[in-house]
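Entry: Sugar O-acyltransferase, sialic acid O-acetyltransferase NeuD family
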Amino acid sequence: MMISKEEKFKLILLGHSEAGVGLMTDLINESFGISQFDVVKNVDLPDCYFVPSLYDIHYFSDREYDFEANKPFMVQFGVQQSHIRFILFQHFNELGGISQEDYIPVRHRLSYVAPSASYQEGVLIEPQAVVSSFSRLGFGVSVKRSASVGHHASLGDFVSINPAAVLSGYVEVGEGSEIGSGAVISNNVKIGKRSLIGAGSVVTKDIPDGVIAYGNPCKVVKENSIWKDV
């Protein structure tokens, strides 16, 4: 994605966690050359550590930030978890009028995305990640380092594919679901909305909405209560 000279001046991160801010500042700097960031916090937590010689980072509360004055600048999420990204999108859409079109997709140069694959705004595709032919990634999807998304896969909004997970061909993952590190999803399997697949699981059958499932073979264990109040 091309961004204008004005947009290159800085980028806004919405929400913050140590992992999220640290990861996004490095990836955005490598991808776009941006070194100035505004981090807008929706909760009163300590500022995250950063290296002053690398980046110029300013922290703001969501109530004090001037969203209108900063409309020219693109945004991304400053957190990693699917349900938190969902909450933050709703919050900043209502508070600051931030829409999906304002979020920049971040694709690291050492990732591979097939020419026939597609992704929406706000995605994060980390180094060594693979997105195969005719796959579709929804808004705010995160494909972590060394994860592989197979051909003709469909990932709903806010899905997280964690490091080294492997999705085979024609896999469907519903909105807000997370696939744990090193999990393997077999061909044609459907993962429901807002479910969590545990790390290292081998999934050979469909998984319903709103559950935590893990194991080899992967089985439903309990309700995914983290989404209960969202």
